[in-house]
Specification:
Helices cover 40% and strands 21% of the residues. By secondary structure, the chain is of the alpha/beta class.
Length: 295
Amino acid sequence: MDWDKLRIFHIVAATGSFTRASAALNLSQSAVSRRISALEGELKVTLFHRHARGLKLTEQGRILYETTRELHERLAQAQSRLYESRAQPSGPLRITTTVGFGSIWLTPRIAEFLKLYPEIAVTLVLDDRQLDLAMGEADIGIRMAPPVQPNLIQRRLLTVRFYVYAAQSYVKQFGRPDSAVDLDRHKLITYKDDLSRAPLPNARWLLELEADPLKPRLPVITLNTVYGVYRAVQCGLGIAALPDYLGRSDPTLMRILPELEGKKVDAYFVYPREMRDARRITAFRDFMVGKVAEG
């Protein structure tokens, strides 16, 4: 069997969609479909049931997918061993985390890591959605929620706390609230209501805190990322709850209503089980643990 077709089959089976597979493979959807049809012709079996909602593996497809999944894991292990055979940790390292944490907290610290390990080539993939580590979309994830995928090793890295912030320019123009009730008179910034991956359990808590049920508070602007909310606050558009790593890092922001604190969120360091012995993984893990310990 042609390994290239098997590789494409593996991605299609894992994603359940020609569209998602074509994006992961950087091929056109028609090219992916042709390769799968050619593989089915060579094997003389049907590998997928095709329907409007996507693809579903046939019994023969499931048998083949079990084999390609095992091959994928063994190849990843072999690649890790080849890289780790060198004296220094080396090789590519793809790290994914949220846009806010990656831009503000992580990126400034990467320079120090690269000085320690110059043979590691880091790629940062900043995305508020969770990339699929098992599918090789990244090697390491720093996530603001426990992973739900199987076969991932997780370690709690730090606890993120949410406080209320405003830009100094906003306070100068509109004043500073003295209590939660005073928020009725201020412009509030919040997260998108239907964002299931919102970075805190209740994204609208400032709108609801001691609010008059007959006069609900309305946000002046709603955004779907932490970084977007941070930039809106920074520009003086209003008041918002921000993670402490963002608020502390910006001298133009003021923490207001210091008695208020949102629910804490634990951040996790996550990587595939088959890469647990990869030296570039353990080097970055130990580096991150040290940086968090420094505060």
